[in-house]
Amino acid sequence: MLTLALIGLLGGLITAVSPCILPVLPVVFLAGGPGNEPSAPAPGPREKTGPESEGSLLVAAPPRPPRNRRPYAVVAGLVLSFSFFTLLGVTIISALGLPQDILRYVGLTLLVLIGLGLVFPPVERLLEKPFARIPQRQVNKEGSAFVLGLGLGLLYVPCAGPVLAAITVAGARGEINGDIVVLTLAFATGTAIPLLVFALAGRRVAERVAAFRTRARRLRIVAGVLMIALAFALAFDVTTALQKALPDYTAAAQKQVEDNDTARQKLSGLYDDSNKDLARCEDGVNELRSCGAAPQLAGISTWLNTPGGAPLDLASLRGRVVLIDFWTYSCINCQRSLPHVQAWDRAYRDKGLTVIGVHSPEFAFEKDAGNVADQARKLGVTYPVALDNDLDTWDNYRNRFWPAKYLIDAQGTVRYFTFGEGRYAQTEGLIRDLLEQADPAVRLPAATGQGNDELTAGRTPETYLSTSRIRGYAGTPELVKDKPAVYALPAGGVPLNQLALAGTWTAAYEQFTAGPDARLALTYRARNANLVLAGEGTVTVLVDGERSRTVQVHGAPTLYRLTDDDTARRARLELRLTPGLQAFAFTFG
Fold this sequence. Notes:
- The protein has helices spanning 2-15, 25-31, 70-96, 102-119, 121-128, 137-141, 143-155, 162-173, 178-208, 210-214, 216-235, 240-245, 251-258, 261-266, 332-348, 369-379, 392-396, 424-438, and strands at residues 46-47, 57-58, 302-304, 321-327, 353-359, 385-387, 404-408, 414-419, 463-464, 484-487, 498-507, 512-514, 519-543, 546-577, 582-588.
- Helices cover 39% and strands 20% of the residues.
- The protein contains 18 helices and 15 strands.
- Strands 9, 10, 11, 12, 13, 14 and 15 form a 7-stranded antiparallel β-sheet that branches. The protein has a 6-stranded mixed β-sheet with strand order 3-6-5-4-7-8, with helices on one face. The protein has a two-stranded antiparallel ribbon with strand order 1-2.
- By secondary structure, the protein is an alpha+beta fold.
């Protein structure tokens, strides 16, 4: 449970500095600034009385101004309402029969009221009345800040990674247990830390900058107007343009923390053994694999962009390539990804591709079919959209991310998936491969050019030394499974992105094991080449026929660097391995 809490804490920290929370930051900053109206000046000196009064005055010490606790109040309110309603909001709304977007409207209303309170003090006093019975006088004065936090928590729409996805799915399905509560509290704590730092910075500026002290009234009015403006901007989706324009600078850190082996194991409680063949695929691997029959689109409440709202069935789409895109309309990462999906739909719909957007909501207001239809129209989504309000299809595909893309071949087998943004050129290339496999006579248009993936363009893909997963084998004879065999390199050399064996090797499903005189040749294009090796021995590395280095291999499977150049280049790699060494997979950077 400690590991789970640490994953949640780090996930919250990353989320709180992501582009998706930018709309609430100005309010959090201002919340720590101008507090209530300045009080009357402290009383001046008063006369002494009694025996000590001769010729002297008793000077009353000025009262110490109360500490501004507004930053703590607003962050506490935000974290409390976000955590509570993320876990229980769907259950409460369903039980009361309320509209799915009621919480969003409540949050917008509170934000407007707080803004009015800053502009018109009588409104603020009205908002503080519920806190009037609390004995501590200063706590009473922070009531409006706490209410502001409660409202912001209802409008807080962070970028969702696997941690928040796990919390959201558990809340939506009513499957709340001790682990989910711990994960939620840890995530909320991680989120609160950067937000509190930002709010305290606002308080610091307000205390130290003279303009805040001498023009407190004007600044309160400005803050109130900004909050009201933010409420209307959120209501009419004006803030989305800014969020979409910014790169997702936390994506790499989020994947490192939330999508590593340990995190996947800890968050896997949402999945049973059904559709476990999907585990044969790995996120974003640049090759087509066989990952089991595509799970059905289950629990779909509504279909958009189909004739008469008729449902689609994957079985009826056999013979066509299917791209399933998991998305939700308030997710900025999803919105940045949509133009690429739309371009593929336009380019390849008539060539055998069917795109299905599975809308799996992150928040309650995203369950409203009218909201989804309206946003799909605004975003230009014209392909079929399935409303997965109960997250049944999400679970069937063992999904963890918004957005996520799954490629299904013409026989109904999942062949590839990728999570998050990016890999657009790679994904389009695999779509084209599947279309050509489905119909070798198809004449495809030029690639859409949506996302050149400059960092990976032309780079040799990950290459597995596995009898079931290897591709681009150029040696002779054909691979012999699970038995030692003698191989030879091709006389004309090894083509780009292909490999060959020489000497004795035992090829198996997981790895190739070197025997006497074992050599391996590979032509690649990249800055560096790496190989996962295990056992005891050495690997002599030759690049373009010249000896480069000797790698010492020791112990369990470990990634070893074979070559390292400043820029990407084409090179012929030859490895000479000690008998008994096991080789698993090449990766390239």
